[in-house]
Amino acid sequence: MDDRQFRNAMGKFATGVTVVATEVEGNVHGMTANAFMSVSLSPKLVVVSISERAQMLEKLNQSGKFSVNILSSSQQDLSMIFAGQQKNHQEVKFERLGEVPVLAGAVAQIACEVSAAHIEGDHTLFIGKVTNIHTEDFEPLIYFSGKYRSLAQE
């Protein structure tokens, strides 16, 4: 199988959309990611997968802390900004959840400390110990087959 066939098959898995954020030397950095999942309830752990080519890789290694912001359906523009798809945009304002930057209006904000990092293929899997959570009752932003989607109304 070729890379395109693999990517197309993986795109058939509908996911939520997140922005992973961290802070290094007073500067906030973020990137869009849909490679996110919960790992454990006890202890509370999540994982994000970061490409070896992503600038965020070194930032997470430096900070040791990050947030996962599960985007709401009204935050497609933020997804595109942090995916590098919108170059001309206004500065994004971050709030704080404990010691990490978070995005207001997200369905969930999850603050984490890096508890482990595993290099697998061309990505590093960062295991995050959850230190704080804030949730809202908003509709999530969904990504499927290369397009943003929304949940169907009943």
From TrEMBL:
| Pfam assignment, any one | Flavin_Reduct
Q: Which residues form a coiled coil?
A: none
Q: Does Oxidoreductase show up as a keyword for this record?
A: yes
Q: Which GO terms describe its molecular function?
A: FMN binding; riboflavin reductase (NADPH) activity
- Superkingdom of this protein's organism: Bacteria
**One of this protein's GO BP terms?**
pyrimidine nucleobase catabolic process
Q: Which UniProt keywords apply?
A: Oxidoreductase
Annotated ranges, domain Flavin reductase like: 10-150
InterPro entries (UniProt xref) = Flavin_Rdtase-like_dom (IPR002563), NADH-dep_flavin_reductase (IPR050268), Split_barrel_FMN-bd (IPR012349)
* Protein's name in the database: Flavin reductase
Species for this entry: Neobacillus cucumis
